[in-house]
Amino acid sequence: MSNERLRLSAEEIYADELKALSQGDDRPRPANWRLSPQAVVTYILGGKAADGTTISAKYVGNRRLIETAVATLATDRALLLLGLPGTAKSWVSEHLAAAISGSSQRMIQCTAGTDENQIRYGWNYALLLAKGPSREALVKTPLTRAMEEGTLVRFEELTRMGSDVQDTLITVLSEKTLPIPELDTAVEARRGFNVIATANNRDKGVNDLSSALKRRFNVVVLPSPATLEEETGIVLKRVREIGTNLSLPPIRPADQEIVRIVTLFRELREGKTLNGKIKLKTSTGSLSTAEAISVGVSAWASAAHFGDGEMDAVSLASNLVGAVVKDPVQDTVALQEYLESVVRTRDGWSDLYTAIREVL
């Protein structure tokens, strides 16, 4: 495995865990699945393989939600992972595809510019002009390949693309076929084919799903971490994993600084202090768990390259301000109020107050 690539896929990073689960998995598997549904849940939530191999937890949360998601994919109904930004929708989607199909690379990133050709199929125009419409001139998309091979295909941020383009999926999800009228034929889905989509309704620029399309998905809502401890654990784990993968220079343990990041994010996100005694202005941004992870990784890089090898208030400050202040007017006011009413008087946070004040 080459270390030159910036990011490895889930099936590459956790190849040993997937192999151990597969070898000891004697339970029934749906058609074209690499693992049984029970083994997929173990892969996502962590546990032990039959040979004793430790399986790391990829998602920390309600077991029943993951069981429902896996059970959905074992049927002919598509799965929609719904939640606020940063609730690990894409992370869970990637790992489900890796465990079930052996590849998480069949993926379409939906944007406002995504059109029907990027979902259904396109044409090699040189061949099209030379020979006319033919199978050879057809340019397959991740969707058509997944249908032909009986694997999962991922649609990331489904609500980012226009509603008329979204509805391209209706025939595929209901009839399990993709008509190609130019050739008077169709792509028929093999057993094992299914769709995992992710969406959120918080960010600007989202498009509502039509009622017809909604009915063809089973929706699983992934909630934000319920407690400070749970969210801190998630952020600590992912910061360590990402920093190690990026080969960042080692620094001293930064658990206490991560706690401060998560505390600040939760309080500004919820509009009140953790004890509920002080009401606060909220930020226009989502201040999600994913953003807290990004701040932690950036602060690690700052501490390693420009500090003394210890994450501190100085390495946190500029990264925190950059994450919180998305609207220069509204968010700056919210952060300044938070600094004066909470940070300035909180025990052990005076250094963070001073460092952030120097950045603002």
Structure characterization notes:
The longest helix is centred in the middle third of the chain and has 18 residues, at 228-245. The two termini are 44 Å apart. Helix 12 (228-245) packs across helix 14 (289-306). A hairpin with a 5-residue loop joins strand 1 (47-48) and strand 2. By secondary structure, the chain is α/β, with parallel strands linked by helices. The mean pLDDT is 93. It is globular. Helix content is 46%, strand content 12%. The strands form four sheets. The chain has a five-stranded parallel sheet with strand order 4-7-10-3-11. Strands 1-2 form a two-stranded antiparallel ribbon. Strands 5-6 form a two-stranded antiparallel sheet. The chain contains 17 helices and eleven strands. 38% of the residues are buried. It has two domains: 62-221, 3-Layer(aba) Sandwich (Rossmann fold); 228-359.
Task: Note the topology.
Elements: H1 10-13, H2 15-23, H3 37-45, E1 47-48, E2 54-55, H4 63-73, E3 78-82, H5 89-101, E4 107-109, H6 116-119, E5 121-123, H7 125-131, E6 138-140, H8 142-149, E7 152-156, H9 163-166, H10 169-175, E8 177-180, E9 185-188, E10 194-199, H11 211-214, E11 217-221, H12 228-245, H13 255-270, H14 289-306, H15 313-324, H16 330-341, H17 350-359
Parallel strand pairs: 3-10, 3-11, 4-7, 7-10
Antiparallel strand pairs: 1-2, 5-6, 8-9
Give a quick precis of the structure:
This protein is of the alpha/beta class. It has 2 domains: 62-221, 3-Layer(aba) Sandwich (Rossmann fold); 228-359.
Q: Regions with pLDDT < 50 over 5+ consecutive residues?
A: none
Q: CATH fold name of the largest domain, please?
A: Rossmann fold
What is the count of structural domains? 2
CATH superfamily of the largest domain: P-loop containing nucleotide triphosphate hydrolases
Overall structural class, as computed from helix and strand content, comes to alpha/beta
In one word, what is the shape?
globular
CATH architecture label name of the largest domain: 3-Layer(aba) Sandwich
Indicate the percent of residues in helices: 40-55%
